[in-house]
Amino acid sequence: MSAADRPVVRRRRGLGIVAGIVWRTRRRGIVVWVSALVAGMVGTAAAVAGMYDTPAKIHTYAEAVTSGSALAAINGQVEGIDSLGGVIQDEFGFLASFLLPLLGIGLVAGSTRREEESRRLETILGGRIARPQPALAALAVATAAIVVTSVLFVGGLVLAGVSASGAILYGAALGGLAFVFAGFAALVAQLALHSRGVYLWSLIMLAVAYALRGVGDATQTWLTWLSPLGWAEKTAPFGSQRWWVLAIPIVVGLALGCAAVWLAGRRDVGSALLGGNAGPPRAGRLQRRPIGLAVWIHRPAALGWLAGGILLTAMMGSLAQQLLDAMAGNPALAESMGIQGGRPLNGFVAVTQLYLAVVAGGYVIQAIGTLRAEEADGRLETRLAGTVSRLRWLAAHTVVVAGGLVLIVVVSSLVLAVSTAWSVGDAHDFGAIMKAGLDYLPAELVLAGLALVLFGWWPRGFGLAWAGYAVVTFIAFLGPGLKLARWVLDLAPTTHVGNPPLGAVDVGTLSALTAVATVLVLLGFVAFNRRDVPQA
Question: How far is CA 232 from CA 36, 169, 252, 324, in A?
Fold first, then answer.
């Protein structure tokens, strides 16, 4: 080996070492993410193939969901909707719009800025590791996980009976979507000082992308081409198959990733290019209290999920009249959306409130996951070394997380009520819409209780909380439509709420859900009070 080759070999070895560290520290989360996504896709494909097993059934479905532009704003314009692959793409479209970007964001944010916050990155860079290599390794591991997910997607689709070319293009399009958001999260990790900021700005970017794709599809304009979600849709895997569109997310993702790696090699470790100052020299009176510090920690996540809830409910509410008109002209559309019986407006509100319940559930899981990050990064041990007891610390965070949950539900429901009243020209259902949002609070608290139990009892297994959330999301969105068994539907706490305002809400059931949530929260408190802190 010549002397000129030695630096190259050292760089390769350094990158391999860092990639190995990223894999070892993130492998549980990666396995949970990939398994949940693949199970969701394969389950959807198998169930759709079983339900729409004749061309006539597929044609009926296609006629229902292409009535009007309102539904296109939600699930997108699916070319080739009159095929099995098109039906699967339409059914999985709403989930894919959020879960694939979250895959890219979560994998990169956790292994870049969070590692830097914990000062582990500084230790790693103390060896023969070049500064850009940790960011490059994080992107490499995330890309490998995305590729594996896409390949498993393709296998599941082919087994369900979808053509191989369509399955490959659809899997690649979803992989490209995750890749773009992984690159964006890597870039934001160089700009924001905390991992909370990375999640906040990435979620805002996701909300903007969803809005652009929705407005573009509803109005059939070029706005769709401005959204990464639109790029995945425009590949048309089950229609005209535009393979060249795949180049857009690949180029954009590479550009974002290269910019992140370039910036990582040119800034000080522990700094940020935007808002990277050390902050005020002294904390305010409120921030010196456990409740004030908890508000400061959870505020970015709450604002990010609140923005998502407002965007979702504002868009759905403003399209209410269009959807009602479409359902009046095509009853099959209402059936495809799970709206049966009662007033169509009630059915529309019930579907939207279920979407909002899933958004709120995601917030509580992420917020309680922040407590695990506080412990893993060494800040929890410091806090508990003073006069603050464990139970007081956990109680402060629990109250703030619950307050954020109520804020998201109430404000988003208010936006839905106002936008729906504006769309249909009638505010008669204002109170029913607000009540429907509040009816889901016990089910959302059950998810919070499950996350608290895992944090208190088995913090290293907190990834199971996200797995449970993925199962609940899958059942809530697709369970009734795919006619899953009753015992499977009952696994999701949202199933027991009663689909308000379309269905009747049993006060006894809501009380039982509240009791379950209370017991889970208490178990979480007891387990946290008895275990070692910190726990690696």
Answer: 20, 9, 13, 28
